[in-house]
Amino acid sequence: MPPLYQLLVSLLPLARSPASPLQHPKGDHASASRSYGELDSWIERQKEVAAERAFANIGKDPNYYYTWTRDAALTASGLLSLLPSPSSGTPFPVSPSSGDDPDTRFYSSLSNRTLSFFADYIDAQTKLQHLDNPSGTYEDLEGLGEPKFEADGAAFTGDWGRPQRDGPALRASAVMRFLHHATAQDDLDDRLRAKAVRLVQADLDYTAKFWNHTTFDLWEEVRGSSFFTTVAQVRALSLGAQVFASLDPQKSERYRTAARKVLCFAQEYLENGVEGKWVRSNINVENGVERSGLDANSLLATLLSSPASSSCAAHLFTPCSPTSLTSLSAVLRSFTSLYPINRPRVSRLSRLFTSEQQTTFATPPSFVPAPLRPLAIGRYREDVYYGGNPWYLTTLAAAEQLYRAVIAWEKNGKIVVNGDAKFWGALLERQVSEGSYERRTEGTFEAMVNAAKGFADGLQEDEDSSAELECPDGSEYNGTMSVGFEVEVKTEWGESILLAGSSPSLGRWNLAHAVWLSAAEYTEENPVWNTKQKVEVEGRRGIEYKFVKLEADGTVVWEGGKNRILYTSSDGERVVRAEWNGA
Ligand code: NOJ
Hints:
Bound molecules: 1-deoxynojirimycin
Helix content: 25-40%
Strand content: 5-15%
Distance between the termini: 43 Å
């Protein structure tokens, strides 16, 4: 599974990149494990490249050549995520004992570089903390909210969106994580430790003092309360309460009390939507910016929780919290139809359901929510920066949220659906009831986990539809047909009819990707379900297919008899009319 470091791979917008480095060879269902294997080995190869870039991620066009408090802290935390966790028992720094093993060499060099990076980072950030700047000073603490400094360590005095109150919280968390790593291995000199503790303490004091003051958000555009900032503050203060428990019990108690208050404040961002509670990322907006509030801000915030945490409690906003999943769905839907890169991903029929209206949560005309599609997403749909683009950083955040949720569910051995039944309905494309789905007692848990993993993988696929049509030299390619399908079948209220088949456009027998038929023309006299728009059916000699009934309770009934065959012997259009085979 792609871990956090993929988030560090690039800040470039997806649409500008000629070929996605994340693309991996397509495989049909039968060869899925082969393509996952290839993805895994790609990740293995990219590890070193990604680490290298994390140390060098700064550029002058556009001019990002500054020290950014937030970026530096997230990068520092990201480096720690690349290393074996302290609980794994692997020493930090990793000693290159078994010389030739490339993995050991990689971790050994990375951990040494990370150690020296943190020594510099703690040193430089301590100086910046004490520097008078346009946000304030060290004495009044306000200076800690300054978002950027000149690369030579001077204050940046130009106009900017300041203060940004997530910076100190993120920095404190990064340094506390570092202390945890290094202390677990007894590998920290006392001076560095003392300096790190002072740095963290000032950042936590700042956070405890100013958490309920407005701030510029992580995109540096909206002045108000920002969900990402609030969550960063909860995480830092609660970790701070732990870290200071033995160092300074009074401080620890202060941080714990503040953490509780900030966590309660975080619930203020929740809104009721037709798919459940979702996070409006910006509230108390002061500078007049108008947005839907559906923003990758809320997905990135889930990734601030400890990777070791497996709690899925709604109020904690971890990756697997029902509120986080509902927000993920709402954010993904808000990007439907926005970017050309997504067009092949949104099947014709699902486009019928998922109109632009989704941002306002129009109820889809079905008992299950419109299917969710893995889309490349940007920051928020109103974004115009650089023309407004999908970004690796945000798209991979969506994938990472799901991977981390899967890890938590696997660890817990169950998924509790509580307020997020519509998210699951949209993912599994069938009705899912509230309740606890335990591993092994029945197949639903596995189906849910696989759907979430498959969806997260899908976010990283290059969905250029032309790849589906490629044909090796010398083979007989017989064409693509535009086919309308109609089936006469009596159905009850709440039932749906799907079309599944061997071709990619029919989902390669995978029901999650099958085509949903429409009952718009269904009458008592003429009980017909049809594809409404024609389906592009591609194949060499012919394809196989069947109609499938989805009953109101989610039971799947396949048509009887042999698979139907459609010969795609020429280019062109046609309509296939069939009767349901009840045999
Ligand atoms: C703009 C981004 O929106 C913000 O999150 C980041 O801190 C700065 N650029 C610097 O990279």
